[in-house]
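Objective 1.3, modelling of assemblies. Example input:
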Amino acid sequence: MNASTNVQQLLDNQDYQILNLGPTHPATHGIFQNVLKMDGEIILDAESTVGYIHRAFEKIAERRPFYQIATLTDRMNYCSSPINNMGWHMTVEKLIGCEVPKRAEYLRVIIMELARITDHIVCDTVIAVDTGAMTGFLYLYQWREFIYEIYEEVCGARLTTNIGRIGGMERDFTPKAWDKLNHFLKEFPKGLKEFDTLVTRNRIFMDRVIGTGSISAERALNYGFTGPNLRAAGVDYDVRVMNPYSSYQDFEFDIPLGTSGDTYDRYMVRMEEMWQSLRIIEQAVKNMPDGAFHADLPEFYHPPKEKVYSEMEALIYHFKIVMGETEVPVGDVYHAVEGGNGELGFFLKSDGGRSPYRLHFRRPCFIYYQAYAEMIKGGMLSDAILVLSSMNVIAGELDA
Amino acid sequence: MHSNIVHPNLKYLTPAIEELRSKIDAKLKQRFGEGYLSSTIDYDFPVFFVDRDIAIDVLEFLYYDSEFEFTFLTTMCVTHYPDKDNEEFEVMYQLHNMPNNWRIRIKTALSKESLKIRTATTLFRTANWMERQEFDFYGVQFEGHPNLKRILNMDEMNYFPMRKEYPLEDARREDKDNSFFGR
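Predicted structure (tokens):
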């Protein structure tokens, strides 16, 4: 459908309806309010309202020691919280100039790619649900659940993981975690293939998603798109390749690209990224180096609990870390990771004190959600729901 | 136990970053003269300090200049320094040239008496919500912004919560009776 002519025709002598889509609409998967100007089923104009779950993380972070901020980052993109955690740890590591052992970096890569898979599972299955395909969702969500079990083996938590520490991981993977990971690597491809067969070439699904909510590469860049949404529009920008962190340069993987930036391309890019994430995990498991799982970083990395009770030095460092008495260099650090939804950046301004002087999160959702109103104009209401789920806007990250 | 911390600035300084800094430094000096103040390198970022009046002109120059083409605004944010006289607010823009993977930071200082700067939305659509957010937090007026109103906080709020005069509770305070808080 040609959106612009359609709107122009409809704008002439018509009565319009104002529709509040949200804030708590069952189809929007989160707290999003959009005030739509409607003509029947066609959206003529839209305005997005955000901030319903704003929790002032940037302000709270100004009072917290560095290691306590990891729990704030969990709650931004809660579909892939390990990536946020790792991004934060790496930002602090960059600030203090710490080298992380290879093994810790590989363990982090495994966790981050698992998180990317969960994020993409949520997005792609929900696109399918919004087109009416419930079955694929139910089947593939089991694997999201299984990844949460792997997290549980590694860190004890499922959703808000607080995984990893400044300087490495909090513990090595347990044998049980390796078992689960190997089971996942063996069985998940079948599940993903099954989902692919069910949904991707389904005629009804294709009719619903092809050509809706498209955005050109130029416009997407001007709107600050990053991540799968930008790649769906045809720009091969991926932080893992452009600014490799955590040993991503050691792995071989492809960056899938779309062409038209529509809902189908966003879906397809995410599907392919799951396969690529699997490739990365397989390589990391195969080439897993031996060695320590954390850096020798006593001023930031908590000593083992038994040592705290028996060794003077460990007790001192434990106290210093918990009380946030460790000195850090002065300076501005920006570190970005490829989050589930794009470039997740941490701008950390340190004045040498116990907590950041200023911490700014570059939240990809917040930045690209501005384009939503423009992308749905001229389309149908039911397509607007699909565009929202295909952009994978996560309320926690949007409002921070 | 010994620490393996090295001085961070030495670690991240590469010849390519220094070259980029000096190239842009020369260009900005030639183009803006007095208004361009200084440059430095903070970790892996070349940072350029410019006068508040020309900040957006610098962004525009770097956007259209055929050599640099910084056409992607990664992020921007404001910081409050209540003790810096006449320079209480610092605005930071982070630009990215994706094909060459150059990242730079532009900084400018605003005084609390005249807390305003031209909007960057004329160049980047993405600056729209970023500026609204910083207005919401710090009260910086972005002149020419199409829709400058609060975004994350409620419209009725009559203060700017990220300013340093609104401290959160100090975690180390001693005058609080912990028994009231279940500790």
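Chain B has four helices and seven strands.
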